[in-house]
Amino acid sequence: MSVVKSIQLMLPKDAVYQAGSCVKGQVVLTLHSTLVDPIVKVELVGRGYVEWSEETGATLDYSRDVICNNKADYVHKSKMFPVKDNWLSAGSHTFDFHFNLPPRLPSTFTSKIGHVFYYVQASCMGREHILAKKRMYLRVQGTSDFPRENKSPLFVETEKKVTYNCCRQGTICLQIQMENNIFMPGGRVHFTTEIDNQTGKCIKSIIFALYCHVLYEGFTPKTERRSRVESSVLLRQEANTQIVPFNTTKIVSVFNLPPLLSVSSNMLEGEIMSTQYELVSIVHLPWSLTSVKAKIPIIITSSPVDSDNCQMQEEADSVSQE
């Protein structure tokens, strides 16, 4: 029977940690019997990696799949707890810790291609053997140096001529208007869509979607640089409406953003992914076998918190950063 009964990490449940903030918690070590010369340690780790396969040699007589991948280390800090007289008695022992997250970090993220993850891990060793360990993953909201100035259009318009009933033609004009296109995670995206139906047909529905476009960068086994874009729908709404022929309708909509999001960013040297967002309104016209789309880019940004107090605590506790 192991001398260690259990080791637990006590952290706030479902917390979202802002980059630059302090991660505070406790390690609770419970022993069956006395443990001599123990090493009780806690670590904060943040890493990211991307991996996908793609075809090479498609224009030749043969082709094969190659694996493209990349990785990044964002943070690695550790603390060993002092043990008085180098022994611990049977029972429970509690150790307090706090780590300061770096002010510039990407958000926790997962997809089929890429992952960014953070975790705290506690371990207990005796005589060079790991007796017990416990890992808990953290949700971290990243920050970005993406410009805050409004450089994206706040008004877009798409006009399309459509054919219906074999030979008749008409025009659909679709507009999106926004007062602001810069948002924080957990915020509300307000926008107005105007549909001008200059056809003899009814428009029964319109779809609103917030797209997330992620650009991944990796390398082949021969260190050749490769990139890949993956798009997904983050939020979606559908408005059932009856826009009669030769009429104009306005629809006011709101998207509630999740509290944890990757921030908008451009691909910089040494990074493994970058993220862009786009708001799209779509009018499907089944009677014309076509659709009309209007797109407007939006920016998701977040600023690091003031971490001076936690930094002083780290220095006082002599936390080592690896």
UniProtKB/TrEMBL annotation:
Source organism, top-level taxon: Eukaryota
Any one cellular-component term (Gene Ontology): plasma membrane
Domain (Arrestin C-terminal-like): residue spans on this chain: 168-305
GO terms (BP aspect): protein transport
Pfam families linked to this entry: Arrestin_C, Arrestin_N
Family from the record: Belongs to the arrestin family.
Name of the featured protein: Arrestin domain containing 5
Species, as recorded: Pipistrellus kuhlii (Kuhl's pipistrelle)
